C-alpha cells in the first residue's frame, strides 16, 4: 500500500436506534444505524414495520383510493 493516502483505521462505535451498540473497526469515530442484528426481522424472526418517509401511509392511501374507485 502507498503511504500517506489511506485514512486512519481506528476503533469505532456503532449505535442502533433500538439502543444496541457495539465496537468495530473503521475510519470514523461513530455511526448511527436504524437496524442491527438485534432488531432486524431476518435475524429475530419478528416482523417489524419500518416506515421511511411515510411510504407505508402513502401506500395505504393509494390502496384505499383504488378500492373506493371500483
Short note summarizing the structure:
This protein has 70 residues and is α+β, with helices and mostly antiparallel strands. The chain is 27% helix and 24% strand. It has one domain: Irregular (Rhinovirus 14, subunit 4), CATH 4.10.80.
Shape: elongated
Q: How many strands in all? A: 3
Poorly predicted runs of 5 or more residues:
none
The CATH architecture can be named as: Irregular
Strand order of the largest sheet: 2-1-3
Q: Estimate the helix proportion, in percent.
A: 25-40%
- How would you state the average pLDDT, rounded? 84
Structure commentary:
By secondary structure, this protein is α+β, with helices and mostly antiparallel strands. It is built from 2 helices and 3 strands. The protein has one domain: Rhinovirus 14, subunit 4. Helices cover 27% and strands 24% of the residues. A 3-stranded mixed beta sheet has the order 2-1-3, with no helix packed on it. Strand 1 (10-16) and strand 2 form a beta hairpin. 0% of the residues are buried. The model has no long low-confidence stretch (mean pLDDT 84). It has helices at residues 41-44, 55-69; strands at 10-16, 21-26, 30-33. The longest helix has 15 residues, at 55-69.
Amino acid at each position: 500500500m502507498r503511504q500517506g493516502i489511506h485514512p486512519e483505521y481506528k476503533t469505532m462505535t456503532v449505535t442502533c436506534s433500538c439502543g444496541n451498540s457495539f465496537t468495530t473497526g473503521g475510519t470514523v469515530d461513530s455511526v448511527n444505524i436504524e437496524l442491527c442484528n438485534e432488531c432486524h426481522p431476518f435475524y429475530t424472526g419478528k416482523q417489524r414495520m419500518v416506515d421511511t418517509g411515510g411510504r407505508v401511509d402513502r401506500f395505504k392511501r393509494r390502496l384505499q383510493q383504488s378500492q373506493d374507485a371500483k
